[in-house]
Specification:
With about 500 residues, the chain is mainly alpha-helical. The protein contains 21 helices and 2 strands. It has a two-stranded antiparallel ribbon. Helix 19 runs antiparallel to helix 20. The longest helix is centred in the last third of the chain and has 34 residues.
Amino acid sequence: MHRAMAEKDSMWSNSARMSVRPEPGARARVVESPLGFSGGRTVSTVLIVGVVAVCTFTLLRGVRAEWIWESLRVMAVGVVLILGFYFPRDQPKPAFVMWWLILISECTFFREGDMYAGVDAYQGKFPTAVYGEVVSWLLFLLAVLVCSARVRGYFGRLFAGDYKWNTLFALLCVACSLYAPRPSFGLVWAFKLSLTVLILVLCSIRIHDFRDTISFLRFSTFAFLIIIIEPVIIAIWRGQMFDEEGRMSTVVSPNALSPNAGAVLLLALTLFSKRKDEGLHKSAILLGIVACAIMILAGSKTGILAAIFAGGLYFLVCRKFGPAVSYIATTGVLVAILALSTPLGDYFRLYQERQGAGSFSGRTTLWNAVIPAIEQKPILGHGYLASEFISIQINAVEWQAPHVHNGLLEALYNSGVIGFAVMLAILIVIPWNLYRVLRRASPTDRIYEVGAGCLALYAFLLINGFFNSSFGGKPTVPFMLLLSLILVSNKLLELLPRPQRTTPYTA
């Protein structure tokens, strides 16, 4: 027994609990120790409260006034991480808590951008919240190292199977940052991308069955819910819901808010189930309605159309033709109602008058200017996140373009053909795995519905990526969600029996 407890494996254990190695195919059991429950847990609680109190006192006395708020946010992230380790019961898992925290990190350290954000970044000027967020990433790295220390062969899994594509792209971005226009800027964001890959591999190790896979999707869903609710609450608090064009995007870009809300809508469709342990029921309906309304009011045309298409695709793949028609019709009616009853209708009329559809709101002009720049450095590209400064380096459009507005061109411009090839591999692996899931599973199985939902979510992210750089560049939440689909698709595939090969009969 002492030998088993000393052995390092992929099971989680702490001083108050003991992991029992399961039989093959069985779920890991966690046994509470009476001493850990009554004595060790009380001592740990006192220690945590004491550390938090000391840190708070030191913070208020020793930190400059302009750093206090950011320091409090960093400390809050640290407390949540500690609680994730402190309560590693069956759910939640510490790895999932880390995934949830890194998804909402830009909400935790919220800063409002403006049209000069790219110029300020080029000059090395950043808001105070940026430094707080980077410190929180260092806490995540420390937590990953603590968790991975008990996992045999953890770093080898980074290059195993389909996970290697995420790892290779992250490493490539780190290398491309060295010759970027602003190397330090690229390295910081490449660090977050690499950290995301590390956390996803750690999550893959903690996922043992279908319920764990559903739990991971739940964490992702509620993280995205925070991401779309926060700017709405801030806009309501300020008393200014709609911008001068008529879109509900006074706090964040509509090209970010609307697709993020669309992702919540599709995650709600994927998780909807009448059985609680297989998804969400009433809460999925509520999430879907709220996310659909925010998606439409934010006014991203690509986000709205992509969500309508992807939702219809989900029902068609599930062979539910009636619900597919009802979903498309209901969403269309909701778009019409909100356009007629809110300032959103003014935006649609203004867009029609400007005749912006012919150039996709100026995107084709930008793409025509970017392609010659790509041809100048086709192999290695211009450096990771060089596209963030494209409005400074390539003055081709009348508006401040924060990126190339196309995921594939983004990868080509930043990291050349090499990065494009790796990104293309990621985009191919995900639907191929989901296709195999749908082939092996029965249409009546819950795993089939989840596979269909993930395929619809992939299609949604892919369509948005053609117009909004949802992948291939900065690790924004849509890009992180896309990378997580490699994990989910692999886990769904592992849960299904492999098809048996038959040998031809010879007389």
